[in-house]
Structures are given as structure tokens and as C-alpha cells.
């Protein structure tokens, strides 16, 4: 991986540290992935006539991304990463849903379209699907333009049970789990295959660019490194239902990549931790406590439990997710209680001075050698 925005010797160290982390071989941890606005704000592009073009016009997307990444301060172990996407419901769009895109609000949605499961014996991604073609065109444009500059990451994949919830509707899916379990199990098996298809297709586009791999959770590796299991719907079901409908999909997805990270989203998802930690091929767990909940330092027992099962831990601090906490205190508390060599501390802060101060604090905690 190369980038014009980080000096070569420092970049080499960053890459080595990131790769060592996912291998479980990091020394002088934690990983501190901290970004902030640079000294000069990005020069804005004229907005396209239609808002959705901010995500669907590859030329506009790449130009906008390059300006933003060039104007970012990368502290500690952070690298420039871009994850092309069409919002959280993009996978449902690839399955045939009509997406409504709101790039300015950084979201999308699709109206549930599976009224009768008998009309959908097979869930597929049509190669001519508009949203799939737009995504792949943008991905390829980013991979080409990003050579020597940024990493083009794997997509944010709300697949599995979340994709079914999007195309069926959460209320009807909840009834289906009880009334038509075999139908949902069949759909889940199909979605596992489609997840693998997407990952393989994306790999064939981004890996030959020579920039390595990342995803929306940040981090970097030369190998296939993905966030597994958004599974937000899992907060609505019991551990028994999770075992029945989600565990096999999650396990097979972990088995399909080199390094896997599970997005554990909020207190409602904690009930599924025991089963997740039994997945041998799961590399790491990202803990997101959710808006309005205390920051990661208040969840030390949970994080210790995850590390105690041999998994790496990632925590995040940003707007709406603990970004207003005392990050020096957070860093020090986490490093004192957890194994810092198996901790990924990700933060988006307001200034380069704060970013550099956090990294310096991490180095001091590591003994001054990081």
C-alpha cells in the first residue's frame, strides 16, 4: 500500500502494526486509529443537480473522496480509506428493492417488497440490477484512482437476517420466524451464498490495485479483512433464535475471509456474545454501545470477556458514540484493564492537536516505544 499523504518510513510502520494486530502478534499496543480535519478544509465540489448523484456518479464520488481524504490528518496507525456504498440498505437494493438515497443524510432505505415468500423461491443479485452495477462501477473507479493514495474498502454488508428484514419488513419477519422457520432458513442459506459472491467479486476488483483491504470499521490488511454480521435485527430475538437463524451464516462468513470483525451493536446484542465467542474463525469484536449509553470504559467486563475468549476488541469514539468522552481517560482505563496489544482504539476527533495528543498518550502507556 502506498499513499502520498503519509511519509514512507512512517507508512511502513503503520502497515506492519496493522497487519500484526490482525495476526495477534502486535507489540506495544494498542492500535490507535485517530483522524481529524487537516489544517485546510477540502475544496467543495459543486453539487450535482440530483442529490442521489452524490453516490451514483462515479466521477463525482471519486473527486469528492479525494478532496476529503487529502484534507484529513492521519494520526497513529490511521490510513486513508474509502468505502463506496449506497447506504445501509444497499444489499436489499441489490436483491431487487428500489432504493431511496439521501447522501446528505448519509442514509438510504428500501420499501419491503416480499409480500409472499412463494413468489421468491430464490433470492438473487441480477447482474443487470441498477444498484449493483452502480456500486461496482464506483468501486472500480475508486480502486483505480486510489492507487498510491487510499485503500478502497469492502462494502458495509447488511446481509443475512438484516437483509431479510429490509426486504420483508421487521414485523412480518418476526412472525415468519415462528410461522415459517424453514422458509427463513432457506433464505438465510441463499444469503450466505450471495454474501460470498459479493466478497469474491469485490476482492477481484480491489485487491489487484495493491492497496490492501479495509472496510467501514477501518483497520488494514493485505488480506481479506471484513466486518461480519451487522445483524441489527438480532437485538429483537432470543439467543435460541439467533442460534437457529444467524449462527450458521455468521460462522460461514467468518470462514470465508482471512480476518473477521463482528459488529456488536448495543446492549440488546450482548445476549448473543456467548455463541459468537465460540466461533473459532472470528477474529475480533467491535463494541458499539449505542447513542445515549456510557462509553466503552463503562463496559470493561464485557470487553474483558471478549478478550478472554481469545478475540481482539475494537472500540469507537465519534459523534453520537462517545466522542464527547474524555478520550485520554478512556484510553488509559482501557489499556490498564485490557490487553492493549489486542485493543483497537478508533476515534474521530476535532483537531490534529487532539489526535496527536491521544497518540502520544498511547505511546506513553506502551512504555514510550510505540
Could you explain the architecture of this structure?
The model has no long low-confidence stretch (mean pLDDT about 95). The chain is built from 14 helices and eleven strands. α12 links the parallel β9 and β10. It has a single domain, classed as Alpha-Beta Barrel (TIM Barrel). It is about 40% helix and about 15% strand. With about 375 residues, the protein is an alpha/beta fold. A seven-stranded mixed beta sheet has the order 2-1-11-10-9-8-7, with helices on both faces. Strands 3-6 form a two-stranded parallel ribbon.
Radius of gyration: 20 Å
Q: Can you identify the CATH class? A: Alpha Beta
> Mind telling me which CATH architecture this is?
Alpha-Beta Barrel
User: What composes the largest sheet?
Assistant: 7 strands, mixed
N-C termini distance? 21 Å
Order of helices and strands: HEHHEEHEEHEHHHEHHEHEHEHEH
Number of strands: 11
Q: What is the percentage of strand-forming residues?
A: 5-15%
Low-confidence stretches: none
Tally of discrete structural domains: 1
Biggest β-sheet: strands ordered side by side in the sheet: 2-1-11-10-9-8-7
Question: In brief, what are we looking at here?
Answer:
The protein has 370 residues and is α/β, with parallel strands linked by helices. The protein contains 14 helices and eleven strands.
List the helices and strands and how they pair.
Elements: H1 8-23, E1 31-37, H2 53-56, H3 58-70, E2 72-76, E3 81-82, H4 90-94, E4 99-102, E5 107-110, H5 130-145, E6 151-152, H6 160-168, H7 170-179, H8 181-206, E7 225-228, H9 239-245, H10 247-255, E8 259-265, H11 273-276, E9 284-288, H12 300-308, E10 312-317, H13 327-337, E11 343-348, H14 352-365
Parallel strand pairs: 1-11, 3-6, 7-8, 8-9, 9-10, 10-11
Antiparallel strand pairs: 1-2, 4-5
Helix pairs in contact: 3-5, 6-7, 6-8, 7-8, 8-10, 13-14
Amino acid at each position: 500500500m502506498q499513499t502520498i499523504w503519509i511519509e514512507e518510513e512512517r507508512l511502513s510502520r503503520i502497515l506492519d502494526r496493522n497487519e500484526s494486530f490482525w495476526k495477534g502478534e502486535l507489540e506495544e499496543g494498542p492500535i490507535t486509529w485517530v483522524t481529524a480535519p487537516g489544517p485546510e478544509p477540502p475544496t467543495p465540489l459543486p453539487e450535482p443537480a440530483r442529490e442521489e448523484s452524490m453516490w451514483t456518479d462515479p466521477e463525482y464520488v471519486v473527486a469528492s473522496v479525494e478532496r476529503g481524504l487529502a484534507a484529513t490528518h492521519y494520526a497513529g496507525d490511521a490510513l486513508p480509506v474509502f468505502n463506496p456504498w449506497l447506504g445501509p440498505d444497499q444489499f436489499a437494493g441489490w436483491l431487487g428493492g428500489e432504493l431511496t438515497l439521501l447522501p446528505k443524510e448519509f442514509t438510504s432505505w428500501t420499501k419491503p417488497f416480499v409480500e409472499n415468500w412463494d413468489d421468491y423461491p430464490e433470492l438473487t443479485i441480477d447482474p443487470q440490477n441498477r444498484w449493483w452495477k452502480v456500486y461496482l462501477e464506483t468501486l472500480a473507479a475508486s480502486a483505480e484512482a486510489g492507487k498510491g493514495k487510499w485503500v478502497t474498502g469492502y462494502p458495509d454488508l447488511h446481509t443475512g437476517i438484516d437483509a431479510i428484514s429490509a426486504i420483508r419488513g421487521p414485523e412480518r419477519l418476526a412472525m415468519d420466524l415462528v410461522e415459517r422457520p424453514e422458509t427463513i432458513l432457506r433464505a438465510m442459506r441463499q444469503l450466505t451464498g450471495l454474501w460470498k459472491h459479493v466478497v469474491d467479486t469485490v476482492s477481484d476488483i480491489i485487491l489487484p490495485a495493491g492497496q490492501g483491504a479495509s472496510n467501514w470499521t477501518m483497520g488494514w490488511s493485505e488480506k481479506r479483512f471484513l466486518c461480519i454480521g451487522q445483524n441489527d435485527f438480532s437485538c429483537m430475538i432470543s439467543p435460541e433464535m439467533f442460534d437457529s437463524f444467524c449462527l450458521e451464516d455468521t460462522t460461514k462468513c467468518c470462514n470465508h475471509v482471512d480476518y473477521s470483525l463482528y459488529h456488536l451493536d448495543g446492549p440488546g446484542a450482548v445476549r448473543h456474545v456467548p455463541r459468537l465467542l465460540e466461533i473459532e474463525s472470528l477474529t475480533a469484536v467491535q463494541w458499539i454501545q449505542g447513542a445515549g449509553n456510557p462509553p466503552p470504559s463503562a463496559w470493561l467486563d464485557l470487553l474483558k470477556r471478549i478478550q478472554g475468549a481469545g478475540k481482539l476488541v475494537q472500540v469507537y469514539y465519534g459523534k453520537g458514540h462517545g466522542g464527547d468522552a474524555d478520550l485520554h481517560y478512556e484510553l488509559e482505563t482501557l489499556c490498564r484493564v485490557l490487553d492493549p496489544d489486542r485493543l483497537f482504539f478508533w476515534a474521530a476527533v476535532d483537531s490534529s492537536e487532539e489526535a496527536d495528543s491521544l497518540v502520544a498518550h498511547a505511546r506513553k502507556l506502551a512504555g514510550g516505544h510505540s
